[in-house]
């Protein structure tokens, strides 16, 4: 009997220690990226419980997980009900608050230090994932980004080497048309779009990424609306949880961040009823609109990013050109987007290897980027066209420039999804990879000879 008791005690101690060592809730920020905004609370799964909220809204567990989070811009940590969809934890239908990827971190606080989730200079670097192209959504996405740039002071730019950026990608498993975290997370952060996504979906989710919450979930919403729980689809009450964060200006019924009156209705009757002077009043017909940004959307964003003076940005988002590849015969950078692979100095056609690079083009140069890089229509290599002499093409004579004017970053710190050691050859003028002991074959004879900048190029 004594032996059994000792074994039982040992087993209990083992289980207790195991529970104490469970990993905390974590969120991915891309390869090798750590967001220091971490919640120290482990995931708490609940069964047969209710979580009360203001406004007499009852939250039942039924498949949801109760989680303690200090949301961006919130004053304190609170409990929320979230749903696990794939690897991600979702709050209020479309807000990503974490995932289960290992060795990365989540929203909230680290040793009591609160981090700013706003984007520097109101500029959001974006990568459009290849999955968007595979689903023929790229024109819709680029159109949406440019409409944002013409109306808001946000500047949506193509990512070059920025460490923090948004990757817009297709998903067939998300709950609705789109999902995004709120605010800048650090490193790469996702913005998912379903096939049903429209320009308005891109606008809504990118405003989340910029740091804007849902309008109907403001912590002062009870002065303006009442959630009619009797008309809600089972489980939909979780889509109306309060998002204590950064209310900007007056309550805006017409915001693109506001649900419609019948959102998540099980019977076609209103789930949101409007108030005026604490009595029920007709809702504005614009409530839930997805045709554009309201005047208060624009004004509120201006107040939120009050350190930025431009309005609107009028920046043109230009999709970088992909299909630039390393040739493992000559070490040059060539365009791999045609069936014909051009002409290699090592004879025959170029042979692609390694990353698929995306090169920015037709934008202004900066102190850390160089313009005048062009595609040669004879050999397909990327060459520098800034001199009167156009270098040496292995097809004979000088290179012939065609297509875009590429603007390539140089001499900046390497970041995830970028590769450095791309150099200019001062004999043939092409871009070649200088990271190997062998320097490839130059059309002007011998190996390439590097000169000038160390270019840092992004790949998908």
Describe the 3D structure.
This protein has about 450 residues and is α+β, with helices and mostly antiparallel strands. It is about 15% helix and about 25% strand. It contains five helices and 24 strands. The strands form seven sheets. A five-stranded antiparallel β-sheet has the order 1-4-5-6-7, with no helix packed on it. It has a five-stranded mixed β-sheet with strand order 9-8-10-12-11. The protein is elongated and about 85 Å long.
Keywords:
460 residues, alpha+beta, Collagenase (Catalytic Domain), 2 domains, five-stranded mixed sheet, 5 helices, 24 strands
Give the rounded overall mean pLDDT.
84
Number of helices: 5
CATH superfamily of the largest domain: Collagenase (Catalytic Domain)
CATH fold-level label of the largest domain? Collagenase (Catalytic Domain)
Low-confidence stretches: 1-56, 104-114
Structural class: alpha+beta
Integer count of domains: 2
Strand content: 25-35%
CATH class annotation of the largest domain: Alpha Beta
Strand order of the largest sheet: 1-4-5-6-7
Rg computed from alpha carbons, rounded to a whole number of angstroms: 27 Å
CATH architecture of the largest domain: 3-Layer(aba) Sandwich
* Total beta strands: 24
Main sheet summary: 5 strands, antiparallel
Helix percentage: 10-25%
**End-to-end C-alpha gap:** 64 Å
3D shape: elongated
Q: What is the succession of H and E elements?
A: HEEEEEEEEHHEEEEHEEEHEEEEEEEEE
């Amino acid at each position: 009997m004594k032996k059994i008791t000792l074994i039982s005690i040992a087993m209990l101690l083992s289980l207790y220690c195991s529970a104490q060592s469970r990993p905390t809730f974590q969120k991915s920020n891309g390869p090798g990226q750590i967001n220091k905004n971490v919640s120290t609370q482990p995931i708490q799964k609940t069964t047969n419980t209710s979580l009360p909220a203001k406004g007499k809204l009852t939250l039942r567990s039924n498949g949801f997980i109760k989680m303690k989070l200090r949301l961006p811009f919130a004053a304190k940590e609170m409990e929320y009900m979230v749903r696990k969809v794939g690897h991600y934890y979702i709050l209020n239908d479309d807000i990503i608050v974490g995932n289960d990827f290992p060795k990365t971190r989540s929203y909230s606080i680290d040793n009591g230090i609160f981090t700013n989730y706003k984007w520097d200079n109101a500029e959001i670097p974006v990568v459009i994932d290849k999955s968007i192209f595979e689903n023929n959504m790229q024109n819709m996405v680029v159109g949406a980004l440019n409409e944002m740039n013409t109306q808001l002071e946000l500047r949506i730019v193509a990512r070059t080497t920025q460490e923090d950026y948004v990757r817009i990608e297709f998903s067939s498993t998300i709950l609705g048309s789109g999902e995004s975290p709120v605010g800048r997370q650090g490193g790469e952060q996702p913005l998912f779009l379903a096939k049903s996504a429209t320009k308005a979906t891109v606008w809504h989710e990118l405003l989340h990424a910029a740091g804007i919450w849902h309008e109907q979930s403001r912590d002062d919403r009870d002065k303006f609306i009442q959630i009619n729980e009797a008309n809600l689809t089972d489980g939909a009450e979780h889509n109306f949880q309060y998002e204590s964060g950064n209310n900007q200006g007056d309550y805006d019924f017409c915001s693109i961040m506001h649900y419609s009156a019948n959102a998540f209705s099980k019977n076609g009757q209103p789930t949101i009823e409007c108030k005026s002077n604490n009595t029920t009043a007709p809702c504005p017909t614009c409530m839930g609109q997805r045709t554009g940004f309201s005047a208060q959307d624009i004004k509120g964003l201006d107040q939120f990013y009050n350190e930025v003076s431009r309005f609107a940005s009028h920046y043109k988002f230009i999709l970088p050109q992909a299909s630039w590849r390393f040739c493992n015969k000559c070490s040059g950078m060539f365009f791999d987007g045609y069936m014909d692979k051009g002409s290699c100095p090592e004879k025959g056609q170029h042979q692609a290897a390694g990353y698929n690079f995306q090169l920015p083009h037709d934008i202004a140069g900066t102190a850390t980027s160089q313009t005048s890089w062009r595609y040669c229509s004879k050999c397909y290599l990327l060459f520098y066209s800034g001199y009167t002499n156009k270098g040496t093409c292995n097809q004979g004579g000088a290179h012939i420039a065609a297509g875009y004017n590429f603007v390539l970053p140089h001499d900046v710190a390497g970041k995830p999804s970028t590769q450095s050691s791309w150099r200019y050859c001062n004999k043939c003028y092409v871009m070649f990879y200088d990271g190997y002991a062998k320097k490839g074959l130059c059309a002007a004879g011998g190996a390439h000879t590097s000169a000038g900048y160390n270019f840092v190029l992004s790949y998908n």
